[in-house]
Amino acid sequence: MTHPKTVASISAVIGGLAAALAILLGHPFSSGAHTQVLARPAGGTAFASQLTSGSLTPRQIYEKDAHGVVAVRATGSTGSSRGPFGGEPRAQQSDTGTGIVLSTSGLIVTNDHVVAGASTVTVSLDGESGRTRQATVVAEDPSSDLALLRISPAGLTLHPLAIADSSTTQVGDAAYAIGNPFGLNWTLTTGVVSAVNRQIKAPNEATIGHVIQTDAALNPGNSGGPLINASGAVIGINSQIASTTGAQGGSTGVGFAVPSNSVKTFLQRSHTSA
Length: 274
Description:
Elements: E1 10-11, E2 22-25, E3 37-38, H1 58-65, E4 69-77, E5 81-83, E6 86-88, E7 92-101, E8 107-110, H2 112-115, E9 120-124, E10 132-141, E11 146-150, E12 174-179, E13 187-201, E14 207-214, E15 226-228, E16 234-243, E17 255-259, H3 260-269
Antiparallel strand pairs: 1-2, 2-16, 3-10, 4-7, 4-9, 5-6, 7-8, 8-11, 9-10, 10-11, 12-13, 12-15, 13-14, 14-17, 15-16, 16-17
C-alpha cells in the first residue's frame, strides 16, 4: 500500500498541552465543515459481545483481534481544474486509514476524516495482497469524527471486535493499537493508558470529550483503528496524535482515541443496535 498523503493539520486544545501542538494522524479531504449525515443501514447486525476474561499477552491480543482490523482507502477529488480549453479532469488523491469490523453483516467503523469527501472507499480485509471490497458510507458524524461503512459480507468470514465500556478505563491500563501506519498493514504497537477524560478538536472544530490518551505508537494510517484493552476489547478509536514536527509529524508518545462509549452513542443515533 502506498504512503498516505497528508492534506491538512488538525489543531487541538488539550489540557496542559500548548495550543501550538499540531494534531495529526489522518486528514480530511476538505478543510471545511462536513455536513452530518445519519442513515439507517440496511439489514441486521450481530455485534460481538463476548469479552475475554483476564489479561492476554500482546501476541494473544494480535491473534485474537487482527482479523477484525481492516485497511481503508478513500479516493476523492482535490479540486476543480480549468484549462484554456474548458474543464479538465480533477486531480485525484488517496487517503489511507484503518477500520474496525463491527458485525458479521459487514459494518465497519472508522474516523470520519478518513473518508469525508471521498468519491470511492475500499476496504482490504487481510493485508496488502488480500481481499478488497467496495465500501459504502452509511453514516457520518463529523463532530465525533466517526463514520460507519458497509461492505457486502458475501463469501467472507468477518471477525467483529468486542466493544468495551470505556468509562471503566483507568490510567496505567495496558493499551494496544492495531492499524496500518504508513500503509504497513496489521501493525501492532503497545503501551498504556496515559490519561483519560482529555478533550480534542474534531476536524469541524467540535469538541470531543472523554478522550483516552495513550503512549502506544500511532502514526498516519492508524486513524480509525482500535485501541484495545488487555481483554482484547476496543476501548477507543485512534484518531489523533500530538506533534511539534510539522505536517509530516509522527508518533511522540502522545496519541488520542475517541472513547468506545462515543462509538456506541454514534451507532445508536445511526439506528444500529449494539
